Amino acid sequence: MENKEEKKTKVVDFSQLEEGMIVAKEVQQNGKVLLRKDIPITGQMIKKIRNILFIGTVEVYDKKVSVKKKVANYEKEKQYIRVQEEFKEIAFKLQKTFRQLINDDEIAMHEVREFAKKIQSELTPSSIVIKNIVLYGSGDDSIYRHSVNVAALSAIIGKWIGYDHAKLNSLVYSAILHDYGKTKIDRELLKKEATLTTNEFNVIKTHAQLGYKFVKEIKQLDTSVSYGVLMHHERLDGSGYPLGLKDEAIHAFARIIAIADVFDAMNSDRGYKKKRLPFEALQIVKNESLGKLDYEYTKVFLEHIVDYYTGEEVLLNTNETCKIIKMNPNDLEKPLILKDNDFIDLTKEKEFYIKEVLI
């Protein structure tokens, strides 16, 4: 139970804001959050809020409040931002590296190896990377940032499965390069916001073979890397592409990358679709494991990843902040939550749903 003293707050004018105060109630303008709850106020924040809103008040915690938890949350947010910036930087450099592959694959592969090292160095703790992808996805960058996210998730899954160092590296190379073939497709088609025609979708589907044809010629890479590139859109029931392979005919790397690929896509805004609700994305991955995605690998992925949601703060469709108490393995969209000291089972309280995971 939360200490009563920790609930004491006061309302101050913008002119009275001081660095170090902790926001007790988020400040919004036109639906956009300007100051998040439980975040320490900095000088930059004070300047920003005064520039945007000349007159107003902010509810902050009383100075008597113990701020250890608030500062811990702030430090955690800084970790998310650091990973986000690091992944953005890798994605930016990856664009240049993909162009270099055409002319000098030896130099380009040196960069890919360095990217693989950087990505894997950011995986501790895995919760930071997973939550970063849940929060931000890869946006409308369906090649470079998407490839970084898929490589990170694939590496995490590979570790959970028990891959050794050499096999893990090859898996990450394959994941980084899995959508290289998209660089050979018209950019306007990739960014099209309207529904694709059958012919247009068939063109986009060629990216797996285009990438494979190029990657398999890189002498420094094991053949398993190119198989992951070729088969990452294959599905166990034969409904995938480009070869319509089934079950064990699909290389293990491709089956791992497929899980990471689907999860990042579900958590990302694209021109033609909005990102899924965070727990809806988990449920879709689970549903796909029944015939399409590898069941055993998906089981390992979900069994581990649900642990990272327990204890996390989330925002309901009512804009109320709650905490995840226990995940429901039978219905991942409907965990047990704590709201204002009351337990709510979302399988029974159907008027509520989780719309956002909070930092």
TrEMBL record:
Domain of life: Bacteria
PROSITE patterns, sorted: HD_GYP
SMART domains hit by this protein: HDc (SM00471)
Lineage: Bacteria, Bacillati, Bacillota, Clostridia, Eubacteriales
Residue ranges constituting the HD-GYP domain according to the UniProt record: 121-317
Pfam families, A to Z: HD_5 (PF13487)
Protein name listed in UniProt: HD-GYP domain-containing protein
